[in-house]
Design goal:
This protein is an alpha+beta fold. It has one domain: Alpha-Beta Plaits. It is 31% helix and 35% strand. A 6-stranded antiparallel beta sheet has the order 2-3-1-4-5-6. Helix 1 packs antiparallel against helix 3.
Length: 122
């Protein structure tokens, strides 16, 4: 199983449209083949900071999710709101490895690299 977790934060005044985008992404993602869980929650101490938790059955299921059109739509919507900060981690539970996302490619596809390693070219 692969776990992806992290957060993104937008300014308080952009909270409502970020919530709409997050609901859209969560709704679609929960119906994807290979998705076990997909949750968003707003930090109760920091309005506009959204935490997420995902569980995927395989790397292939996660890869398909990363290419989904609605995921790219979500990323564009949130980017247009001005992301103040963000952090994402990926854990391969069977390998016991923690990964951090490398810089996203111009095509909007995330690539993953082991912690402290150089970003992989996607």
């Amino acid at each position: 199983m692969i776990i992806v977790t992290g957060y993104f934060q937008v300014a308080r005044e952009n909270r409502a449209p970020a919530l709409v985008a997050a609901r859209m992404l969560m709704s679609h993602s929960r119906r994807e083949p290979g998705n076990n869980r997909y949750d968003f929650a707003e930090d109760i101490d920091v309005p506009g900071k959204f935490r997420f938790y995902e569980e995927w059955q395989s790397p292939l299921a996660l890869a398909a999710h990363l290419r989904a059109g609605y995921r790219l739509q979500f990323r564009k919507a949130v980017a247009s709101l001005g992301v103040l900060s963000a952090d994402i981690k990926r854990v391969d539970s069977e390998a016991g490895a923690i990964h951090e996302p490398a810089m996203d490619t111009p095509e909007g596809q995330a690539t993953w690299s082991p912690t402290a390693a150089q970003p992989q070219q996607g």
